Amino acid sequence: MRPLQQSFGQVQAFSTSNGFIGFHQERLEVAELSAELFDDLSLTSAWSELKRESPQGSSRPALQSVTINVTQICNLHCTYCAAGGDGTYGQPQRRMAVEKVLPGLTRALHNLEAGDEFRVSFIGGEPLLYPEGIRWVVDHVRSTRPDVHTSFVVITNGTLFSESVVELLASLKIEVKLSLDGPPEINDRSRPQKNGRGITAEVVSGLQRLLARRSELEAVTVSAVFGKHNVDAEKTYDFLSQFQFDQYGFSIDLNANDSALLHSFLLSVEKLARRLASHSEAELLKLRFFSDLFDQLDARAFLNDHCGGGTKHLAVDTQGQTSGCHWWLGKSKKALGSFEAFSPEKAISDIESRNCQACWARGICGGGCAFAHEPFANTLDKKNPLFCLQQRYLIQLGIELYARFRR
Ligand code: SF4
Ligand code: SF4
């Protein structure tokens, strides 16, 4: 009987329900294989006929994105919140001190070249508790470097879409990413108010107000967290898709540390992905994981660091203090100093620091999310095995679907 996966040097060969697929793990190339090539150990030499030069990314150190904590207070009490359970990150400050954040932004923007890309994400707590702060930052970034391609996203729980807030978001023409875990029977349990009562009905009504101005926004996307409260990706998608979001981000709370739960979630995501792919590539690519993966495979961009935290990406708290990840804001051991004084250094790659050299998926995964791996920081291989299982499962599925659409 044929194995389901074979490794030939730098090439992984997968036997799938849609035929045989080869994946070159250094060059990130994907190709369909005949049964003979799947079985034949000389596959790697056959592969060299497909050789193309990989595009080279810029090695110039510069920040490409920042996540700014606009507020460190929240009006909900989500069951899986890692920001101190109340959006405060355990810190007393509640609102962004604009005078402590703008100088760092100015410095980061002056390090960019015309045509570079720069993305700002606004988080909290709940960032729409301080909408004027968002306007200040957007206006400052756009006026400081009109020659840079800037983009902005507000990540919100959707409870504050009043007429005036929607007006502000539309006038700024930015992306709004709603955190919503699914239908009321799910979302009311996982994202309740502080008094324990559900709020999904109010979120949906505010969302309708926002969607009435959708043509003025950059995009309206959604992000759902799965875990003990829900592993049904199909049911969640079927509820959320009535609002026709531009993109759907699904992730599981790995803190549950439950492999049975993760397996159920992955099987459900696979069913959903295959269902959407049976309609069209565009439908599939509404799932953010597959859209990002297809972009990476198109660019053949080998990733050395998963999110670039502390080098290409920085999280900034309300007082202008930084860290490599927003989940580490307020933790002194992870602090990277003031935003204004920060300078990106060439960091050791996540792949090296986490001993990922032997993993076939490393060029796509880039060593993975440091926050997800953190509980394993003192182990020999320094990786969360459930995170790796998830990555390899979804990457293999994505490679198979990529081969089908790009054949
Ligand atoms: S899947 Fe795991 S082992 Fe592979 S690159 Fe990602 S973090 Fe490293
Ligand atoms: S470490 Fe993980 S959670 Fe933090 S910014 Fe990077 S990918 Fe996101």
Question: Can you walk through the features of this model?
Answer:
The chain is of the alpha/beta class. It folds into two domains: 1-50; 65-338, Alpha-Beta Barrel (TIM Barrel), CATH 3.20.20.70. The protein has 15 helices and 13 strands. Strands 10-9-8-7-6-5-11-12-13 form a nine-stranded mixed β-sheet, with helices on one face. A four-stranded antiparallel β-sheet has the order 1-2-3-4. The mean pLDDT is 91. One iron/sulfur cluster binds at residues 306-307, 309, 325, 327, 369-371.
Question: Would you summarize the structure shown here?
Answer:
With 407 residues, the chain is an alpha/beta fold. Helices cover 35% and strands 17% of the residues. The mean pLDDT is 91.
What is the H-and-E element order? EEEEHHEHEHEHEHHEHEHHHEEEHHHH
Q: Briefly note the structural class of the backbone.
A: alpha/beta
Helix content: 25-40%
Count of extended strands: 13
Alpha plus pi helix count: 15
Biggest sheet character: 9 strands, mixed
Estimate the mean pLDDT confidence.
91
How does the overall form come out from the CA principal axes? globular
Q: What is the CATH fold-level name of the largest domain?
A: TIM Barrel
What percentage of amino acids are in beta strands? 15-25%
Low-confidence stretches: none
Q: What CATH architecture label of the largest domain applies?
A: Alpha-Beta Barrel
Distance between the termini: 27 Å
Oligomeric state: single chain
The hetero molecules present are: iron/sulfur cluster
* CATH hierarchy, class of the largest domain: Alpha Beta
Strand order of the largest sheet: 10-9-8-7-6-5-11-12-13
CATH homologous superfamily designation of the largest domain: Aldolase class I
* Count of domain modules: 2
Rg estimate, integer Å: 22 Å
